[in-house]
Amino acid sequence: ASELDMALDNLEAQGIQTLVIDLRDNQGSDLDSAMNAVDRLVGTGTLAVAESKSGEQTVLYNSDDTKCNLPMVCLVNGKTASGAELFASCVKRMEGGSIVGTRTSGQGTIQGEPQRMSNGSAVVVTVAKLLVNDGADHLQVSQLLGPYIGVKMTPDKVKGQAAVAYKRGGGSHL
């Protein structure tokens, strides 16, 4: 997260007013990296919980009191998955951030390590539901990620909006 710290410090020094995090097409396979990054952005609390088939819950990640004090927006689409979904959920639930885009892949599960078969194939088994903290209750991640603001973007619109945002924002990106 030190690269993120440097980028945020640089942007804040330039007078950034809102942090827009583009998670579109992010498969988010490294949950540790996603949780380390979101820990830098959100306040104290539980970030992720695993719930077994029997209903037993285990806290996977907590956040300290270091946080970003800027309004946040996460851009998502149908290819936003796994750690990226959890990242967006934490920003939305813990800091009141907005989620903009289309519904994410919404699996909300944790898979075990692939089990290799003698014929070269593999089996991956779902071992738990992935939950985020919502006050006293935990909600399955896939239930949280219908965007507040639905926007379907074509490649041409994305290029045009990126150019406008770049001109307005002075070229600073995260």
What does this structure look like?
The chain is α/β, with parallel strands linked by helices and 174 residues long. The chain is built from five helices and eleven strands. Strands 2, 3, 6, 9 and 10 form a five-stranded antiparallel β-sheet that branches. The longest helix has 15 residues, at 155-169.
Which terms would index this structure?
alpha/beta; 11 strands; 174 residues; 5-stranded antiparallel β-sheet; 4-stranded parallel β-sheet; globular; disordered C terminus
The gist of it:
This protein has 174 residues and is α/β, with parallel strands linked by helices. It has helices at residues 2-13, 31-41, 83-95, 141-144, 155-169, and strands at 19-22, 45-51, 57-63, 72-76, 98-101, 109-111, 115-116, 122-123, 126-134, 137-140, 149-150.
Q: Strand portion, in percent? A: 25-35%
Structural class: alpha/beta
Overall spatial form: globular
- The number of strands is 11
* Overall residue-averaged pLDDT value: 79
Measured as a percent range, the helix fraction is 25-40%
Task: List the SSEs and their pairings.
Elements: H1 2-13, E1 19-22, H2 31-41, E2 45-51, E3 57-63, E4 72-76, H3 83-95, E5 98-101, E6 109-111, E7 115-116, E8 122-123, E9 126-134, E10 137-140, H4 141-144, E11 149-150, H5 155-169
Parallel strand pairs: 1-4, 4-5, 5-11
Antiparallel strand pairs: 2-3, 2-9, 6-9, 7-8, 9-10
